[in-house]
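U., I forgot to send this yesterday:
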Amino acid sequence: MSRRAVVVVLSIVIVGLSAALWVTSRDTPHAAIDDDENAVVGVPYDYNLMTHCGVDFIRFDGRWWEAQPHLDDGNGNPPDGWDNGIQEGTLRLQSETALQFDATGDRELLFAEATITPTPQTAPK
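Result:
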């Protein structure tokens, strides 16, 4: 086999492996999701929950969700055991109107589909 043929074959193999790895990573159960994509009930999606100033509302699956209950320590911070700033975890639709956030250390938070679009005036203090 000529040197050129070897280079062509290796290039094809590398491109094929790269494509296979990309498809596999997109099919993992903890895939990220863009706001304009539709989430599937029961599938966990990686999510970085913003916890600074507590958690009232989040946007996921093209909709607003309201924490049930609102998450804070009474002073506008997340409770003990929650990261202050960003809490890494997963979101999973339990139904079309119920959403659950799970993080390591048995931390979870339920959300209901919001009946309002949150603004600084409507968000709880």
